[in-house]
């Protein structure tokens, strides 16, 4: 064990006590390959210390302060990846940075204010040893804020950069002092603190070129799709923060509208990683989670499921077989019919039935096959809320909440299908995030094959499209035939059509389909919910004797 | 504004404006203790109407305990109304004493009188009253200081530990005291850094650049949105 490892072992409990009397965290690991001096992983809840940097910069005396700082990330700022995701999206909306981020500086500053009460000199030693660079003016300003916070003489942490800062950013010291003085008064709303922090720092960020980040310690962790999906809708605390920020003049009115106004959700979606840049791999999962949240208010609560009835009414006699329950044997009937000797060897059992006819029958399970139009006339659901996709999500989730099964197909000029029947909300909602764009060509061939494949056990079929469907329908005679066949055999075939034209609607209705004309795109979710109620609700089941 | 009356901090020792050329090294003031007393006093007066009679009575009590002659009622009232008698030690103090003390000024006076609970402040004021008559000391020190720190309102002091430190350091400097465990040079520099008037001046400079920055930022954002719109319509 190295000397540093021994020191860490010794300092770790003391560093934890700075935040709480009992914390369950892994002991820190030494890793000289990390870029920063120390590193916190919020996903694994681990702390790493860069042994080589600590030794090279002669920071052994600061180890307890560094550990206390890293623990602060786990305990308070940001503490959870859900909060990290919210701050991340808020930052993107405020500053439109592509690579640079103020979040680490922000959380570090809040943490160091607390740690600095007892470990001021060790922290000063860290920042003095690390220095600063002209390439990162926000970091230079950040050091000025520490100089003010800790009452140090100007330039103590930044050395010769103090003069350069005054030339480039006149009056920066006043701002640093105000920030160091006022930021902590804005607690406990961390969003208010962050908006204020970002509004002050915005002046130090380059307009054309983003600064090159100067890394001292780092807090990292990738929020989950659910964390990001949660963060798309501003929380009440964020709304309060924006209101305060507007009142204080930290942000202009237009920005406040972007943050919490009617279109704030769309503005936030555009800041998700992968929409306008960055790693897009998680985007479909994030948006699927968001669509599930949007669909939730439209989903009806399924009625309590009826249990199988208790069979108590005696009916016919059958031979009792060894292994069957002894209580089923009807001894009086056995003795009277077979006598005591023969009856004892070959007893009869009494069949019993439920008192209410039909109750004992297994509840009906819905199956729905969804055809979703994702042609170019509708936006990519991963970047903008697509009302037709949301309608498909509502139908799918409604079926699944009623213990049903779903399969789906998305189409434009081509089709993409998830054709195995699934019970997973995650799988179906993520599949529905796919987008093709381009022209529209309804896959009548797939529809025909599905009818053949399902045989006597046809599912509910729902087509979600717009008036493009009319031209697809009229293109070939076979299309109309496949449609009519589907309308006849599906249980039922429903067409949710945006902007449906009367004469075409009549044609589909006459073919046997149910057509729901959606006048405004905004009506899609509501009408999909109404359709789901009619398809999977209790009434539909009773009317059709077990299935719609 | 303090700077208005007494110039930029550091240009000249603050005590000299009040007519105290000599620095009193002993006793040194323990700054956190003084700050604590000031914050406590600020909390006590926050949101309340100041009681000038009570402030004056407590000042007189403090003077008696030094022991020094209590302040003459007529001299005090006249000075508080902006009509101080006698030649002032500096033009700046004369300017500060031309103003009738406001409610906010009475609140600050309450703080100054409460600061006499600190033994070091009490002793420093006692030494200063011994240099000249108590009436003059009270008027020049307490009234001029309370008027000269008009930016440091009670609300601000309660919000910011920086401003409490500024108030405390200025008060110590005005009576010609020293801060415990701190070289004089460091005290002077810290006072310069803390000056709220200076900070506000800095903020004005920063604000000019910030406005320009925000205009350009808004333009860049507008362009970005336009590009996004064009991209989405192409798709």
Describe the structure.
- The complex is a heterodimer of chains A (548) and B (235).
- Chain A folds into three domains: 63-269, no CATH class; 311-354, no CATH class; 367-543, Rossmann fold (3-Layer(aba) Sandwich).
- In chain A, helix 4 (81-95) packs parallel to helix 9, helix 6 (137-149) crosses helix 8 and helix 14 (283-295) packs across helix 16.
- The N and C termini of chain A lie far apart (71 Å).
- Chain A has 548 residues and is α/β, with parallel strands linked by helices.
- Chain A contains 23 helices and twelve strands.
- Chain A has helices at 3-17, 51-56, 63-75, 81-95, 103-130, 137-149, 161-168, 172-182, 190-201, 225-232, 236-248, 253-260, 264-269, 283-295, 331-345, 387-401, 425-431, 444-454, 468-475, 477-489, 502-510, 523-536, 538-543; strands at 29-30, 38-41, 46-49, 217-220, 311-319, 348-354, 367-373, 405-411, 415-422, 460-465, 493-498, 514-518.
- Chain B is mainly α.
- Chain B folds into two domains: 2-194, no CATH class; 197-235.
- Helix content of chain B is 69%, strand content 0%.
- Chain B contains 13 helices and no strands.
- In chain B, helix 4 (52-65) packs parallel to helix 7 and helix 8 packs across helix 9 (134-148).
- The radius of gyration of chain B is 22 Å and the shape is elongated.
- The mean pLDDT of chain B is 85.
- At the A-B interface, helix 8 of A face helix 11, helix 12 and helix 13 of B.
């Amino acid at each position: 064990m190295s000397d540093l490892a021994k020191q860490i072992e010794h300092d770790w409990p003391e560093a934890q006590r700075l935040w709480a009397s009992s914390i369950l965290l892994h002991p820190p690991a030494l890793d000289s390959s990390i870029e920063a001096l120390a590193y916190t992983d919020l996903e694994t809840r681990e702390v790493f210390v860069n042994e080589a940097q600590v030794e090279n910069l002669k920071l052994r005396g600061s180890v307890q302060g560094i550990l206390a700082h890293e623990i602060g990330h786990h305990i308070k700022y940001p503490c959870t990846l859900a909060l990290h995701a919210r701050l991340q999206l808020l930052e993107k909306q405020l500053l439109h940075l592509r690579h640079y981020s103020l979040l680490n500086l922000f959380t570090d500053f809040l943490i160091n204010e607390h740690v600095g009460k007892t470990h001021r000199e060790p922290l000063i030693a860290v920042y003095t040893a690390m220095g600063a660079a002209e390439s990162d003016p926000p970091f230079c300003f950040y050091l000025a804020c520490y100089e003010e916070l800790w009452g140090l003489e100007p330039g103590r942490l930044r050395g010769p950069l103090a003069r350069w800062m005054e030339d480039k950013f006149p009056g920066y010291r006043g701002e640093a002092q105000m920030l160091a003085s006022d930021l902590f008064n804005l607690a406990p709303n961390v969003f208010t603190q962050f908006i204020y922090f970002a509004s002050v720092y915005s002046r130090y960020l380059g307009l054309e070129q983003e600064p090159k980040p100067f890394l001292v310690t780092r807090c990292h962790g990738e929020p989950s799709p659910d964390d990001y999906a949660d963060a798309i809708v501003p929380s009440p605390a964020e709304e309060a923060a924006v209101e305060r920020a507007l009142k204080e003049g930290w942000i202009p009115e237009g920005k406040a509208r972007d943050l919490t106004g009617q279109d704030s959700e769309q503005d936030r979606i555009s800041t998700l990683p992968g929409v306008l840049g960055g790693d897009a791999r998680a985007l479909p999962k994030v948006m699927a989670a968001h669509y599930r949240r949007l669909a939730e208010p439209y989903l009806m609560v399924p009625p309590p499921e009826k249990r199988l009835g208790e069979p108590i009414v005696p009916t016919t006699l059958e031979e009792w077989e060894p292994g069957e329950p002894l209580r089923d044997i009807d001894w009086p009937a056995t003795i009277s019919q077979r006598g005591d000797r023969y009856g004892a060897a070959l007893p009869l059992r009494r069949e019993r039935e439920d008192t209410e006819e039909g109750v004992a029958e297994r509840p009906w399970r819905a199956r729905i096959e969804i055809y979703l139009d994702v042609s170019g006339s509708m936006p990519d659901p991963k970047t903008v809320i697509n009302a037709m996709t949301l309608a498909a999500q509502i139908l799918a989730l409604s079926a699944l909440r009623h213990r049903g099964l779903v399969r789906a197909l998305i189409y434009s000029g081509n089709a993409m299908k998830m054709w195995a029947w699934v019970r997973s909300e995650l799988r179906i909602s993520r599949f529905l995030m796919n987008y093709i764009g381009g022209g529209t060509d309804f896959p009548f061939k797939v529809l025909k094959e599905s009818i053949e494949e399902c045989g006597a056990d046809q599912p509910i079929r729902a087509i979600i499209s717009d008036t493009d469907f009319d031209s697809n329908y009229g293109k070939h005679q076979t299309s109309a035939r496949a449609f009519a066949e589907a309308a006849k055999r599906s249980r039922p075939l429903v067409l949710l059509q945006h902007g449906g034209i009367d004469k075409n609607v009549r044609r589909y209705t006459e073919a046997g389909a149910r057509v729901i004309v959606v006048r405004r795109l905004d009506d899609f979710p509501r009408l999909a919910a109404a359709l789901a109620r009619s398809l999977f609700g209790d009434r539909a089941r009773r009317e059709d004797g077990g299935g719609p | 504004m303090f700077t208005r009356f007494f110039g930029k901090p550091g240009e000249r020792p603050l005590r000299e404006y009040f007519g105290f050329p000599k620095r009193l090294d002993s006793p040194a003031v323990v700054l956190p203790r003084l700050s604590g007393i000031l914050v406590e006093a600020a909390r006590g007066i926050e949101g309340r109407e100041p009681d000038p009679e009570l402030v004056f009575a407590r000042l007189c009590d403090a003077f008696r305990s030094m022991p020094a002659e209590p302040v003459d009622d007529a001299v005090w009232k006249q000075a508080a109304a902006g009509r101080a008698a006698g030649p002032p030690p500096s033009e700046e103090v004369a300017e500060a004493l031309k103003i009738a003390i406001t409610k906010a000024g009475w609140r600050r006076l309450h703080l100054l009188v409460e600061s006499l609970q600190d033994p070091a402040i009490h002793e420093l004021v006692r030494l200063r009253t011994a240099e000249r008559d108590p009436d003059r000391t009270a008027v020049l020190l307490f009234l001029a200081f309370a008027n000269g720190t008009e930016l440091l309102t009670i609300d601000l002091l309660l919000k910011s530990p920086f401003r409490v430190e500024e108030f405390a350091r200025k008060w110590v400097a005005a009576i010609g005291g020293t801060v415990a465990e701190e070289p004089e040079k460091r005290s002077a520099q810290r006072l310069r850094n803390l000056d709220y008037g200076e900070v506000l001046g800095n903020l004005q400079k920063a604000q000019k650049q910030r406005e320009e920055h925000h205009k350009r930022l808004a333009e860049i954002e507008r362009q970005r949105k336009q590009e996004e719109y064009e991209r989405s319509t192409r798709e």
